[in-house]
Write a structure and sequence with these properties.
The protein has 179 residues and is an alpha+beta fold. It has helices spanning 15-27, 40-52, 100-114, 130-138, and strands at 6-9, 57-62, 65-74, 84-91, 119-125, 142-153, 156-166. It has four helices and seven strands, in the order βααβββαβαββ.
Length: 179
Amino acid sequence: MTSDIEIRAATTADLPAITAIYRPAVLSGTASFEIDPPDAAEMGRRMAAILAAGMSYLVAERTGNVLGYGYLAAYRPRPAYAWSVENSIYVDPGAHRSGVGRMLLAALIDAATAQGFRQMIAVIGDSGQRASIGLHRAAGFMFCGTVHAVGFKNGRWLDQVLMQRPLGEGDSSVPLPVP
């Protein structure tokens, strides 16, 4: 039941739970191409950098337990990409298929739109991530392409799937101020 799940801004108090959720994605999953799971201090540094850049970092919580988290990051560092943002979402394995990912993605789309971003990019680790691909498709993302065998992890080559969703006016008007 998702009615008892709260989406809120992440805080440093959430770092142990965030670190624990990310760990299995690194160790045995293909959503992240990272090989060694970062500790809470490194996750805190990453969170601080995202927040310092003015991006959203959210958690999904039920009765004090963090079930998942998601954040926005610059899609690419060059100025022409200033209106595009990438989303990342990780859900505790015990909360998969419970609507947590959908709620986090919807909240990130709303936050990015409110911040004036025009495009959201999903860079999905591995073409076998059917749940993530389906989640993004259901939220209005379009398939852009697959970068084949771009990563090597856990003894096999991994693809990367790119999906994109327009935000607000998308590309129908010139964003202001123009960088």
